Amino acid sequence: MLEMVGAPATGQGGFVDALLIGAPVAAPALAAVVALARRTPSRATGWMSVAAAFVILGSGVFAAVLTVDGYALRAGSLLRVDALSAVMLIVIGSVSVIATWANVDFVGNELASGKASSADLRRYTTLVPTFLAAMVLAVLANNLGLLWAAVEATTIVTAFLVGHRRSRGSVEATWKYVIICSVGIALAYLGTILVYYAAQQTTIPAGAALEWDQLVAHSTELDPGVMRIAFALLLIGYGAKAGMIPLHSWLPDAHSQAPAPVSALMSGVLLPVAVYALIRYRVIAVHSLDPSFVRALLLVVALASLVLATSLIIAQGNYKRLLAYSSIEHMSLIVIGLAIGTPLAIAASLLHIMGHGLGKAVLFCSAGQVLLLEGTSKIAGVRGILARRPVLAAVFGVGFLALLGLPPFSLFVSELGLARAASADGLTWVIALALMMVVIVFVAITTQLAPMILGSGSGSSAAGRDTGSTTPLVVGLVALATLGIVAWPVDQLLHAASLIAGTP
Amino acid sequence: MSVALFSQLLYLLCGGLLLSSVLMLWRRQLSALVGLLAAQGVLLAGMAALLGTQDGGLELYVVALGILVLKGGVLPAVLRRVLANSGAARETQPLVNVPASLLAAAMLTLLAYAVSRPLVELDPTPITHAAPVGIAMVLLGFFMLVTRRRALSQVAGFLLLDNGIAATAFLVTSGVPLIVELAVSMDLLLVVLVLQVLTVRLRTAFGDTDIGELRELKD
Questions:
Q1: Is the dihedral of CA A419, A422, A428, A432 positive or negative?
Q2: Which of A120, A176, A278, B147 is 20 to 30 A off residue A200, Cα-Cα?
Q3: B162 and A186 in contact by Cβ < 8 A?
Q4: Distance from CA of B188 to the nearest CA of A (A)
Q5: What is the Cα Rg of chain B in Å?
Q6: Cβ of A169 and B216 within 8 Å?
Q7: H or E stretch at A446
Q8: What is the pTM of this model?
Q9: What interface predicted TM-score (ipTM) does this complex get?
Q10: Rounded to an integer, what is the distance from CA B180 to the centroid of its chain?
């Protein structure tokens, strides 16, 4: 039933395996079907997604317990769960619990305000859990073709979520998003085909040439010439979904136009899953290629994206776009961790993915409430929220402090881990440059944000409006602080995952 | 089928694919683009069927039929509907003019042959020797996508790129496993349907399908 990582596929998984692998896909799929079947959506439809998110989180925790010793659960040859997948399941689960919880109020507000038709809302409440199912499938996939198809499916599913508003801005954002991401992901498909081609020329059994565990086991036999082209294509392709240069330009538009819970899911789940695909491919690439080529490619892309994000954050006048560029900044830091590639660096990157996901979910959802309260997403238009909505302002402010890497939140720990990993591997200049950017972002964001939260108030007429519950956001912040203070819930799991994905 | 006849037919199909790709850069009539895409769909289906005669299995014939229906029939039909609704018949002002596009096409094809050398060297058979054609189509599609401004031309560029990937897949690996092929085709169909809905929304929101008009969002 259970087997060691890297060992060839021998048997089919048992009942527990099938349940743990099936439940996190089936639960959101079921929620989607129910939402589709209901003619008029209600808050109850929203709660179905929350329940599905809890199932994903629960399966992630169970999977973590089972895989922490280096075992892998499987269902056939298509699906497989190891510690790395378990980490990603927990990320998807925890981010989506916060985002779908906040989403219940979003749907309620839309219903009450009559801004969206019930057909639009029905589509919206169907697509949110469908998106979750596709993301879960991506991290469960052992077959790299299936991984690709699941990531591509999210482009289609989220298109109408980004374009939910149908304003000029959101139609424009959706068009750019679909075109750029489809092209990017098409290049990733070409990369996948080239990996398949290289695998066919090795001793991997004919039917298993796209299976990740087989590819890792036979990675030294893969042709370096073909793999070099393949890895570059995969980096551009999945990099486009992760918001990396050169196909990054869709991200600030889409994130700033999408409804807040969708932005939270895209930033906290979609981008990390694209990075996760790169984590899987990097393991194959470093063994089949000159590792310094892989590292150089990842570093160039990550550092260029980091500099771009920083320069656009400095003069940003729109807080939703600011959050979007901050996502590019954090994905760049995570990809720098991949470039370093040691188990320590991978563990730090994974912790950073967790912390960033929770932080961004809280921030995008609270930004959505600020938008509802103030009616503008311009930083200059929002002054002194603390005086009018103290809890919301506190959540928004503390969320930013967490995202900027202040202790006790876990992003502080993961950034420290990245710095340690880089200097241990002789990449001090990289981390010096990265930390410089982090400091610049820190200064830029705090100076922009202070008057938003603390300044003397404006537009006090909206003070009484109900913008939704802050409970899920507070829960998110508590989780984020817990991760930072006591490492015990995840450190063993991160260690196990880093042994799978890291190379000394 | 003799080896000589097989290779001749294969190279003929590849020549047709490359020619139709270059023609797409040449023609500015949007309906011509749709026709060329449909022709490419038929050529790709022919390629799958031809490879099927060597393979001996049934799988490639099924794939060939699927491609014929999807890329030769369904997708062009969707694009024709978009065309009928959009009211725009011609590419207005491509960012690069036609002679320069054709010159670029020649350069990109040469580039494709240069970069795909490792692919041919890994397993030099008569089939993989044609692989640069697929890569050239990918590059031409990408070029078309970034230099055209009509929504439909951009979609056509994307589909050309995708055809290039499909051709490469056939030439280097005789196609991907059936389950992956199914997922990919499904995704492609849905993307095009999403883009169809979006062109309608673009027209409603902006009164036109010229992507150059999209300047609401910037820093």
A1: negative
A2: A278
A3: yes
A4: 9
A5: 18
A6: yes
A7: helix A428-453
A8: 0.93
A9: 0.93
A10: 19
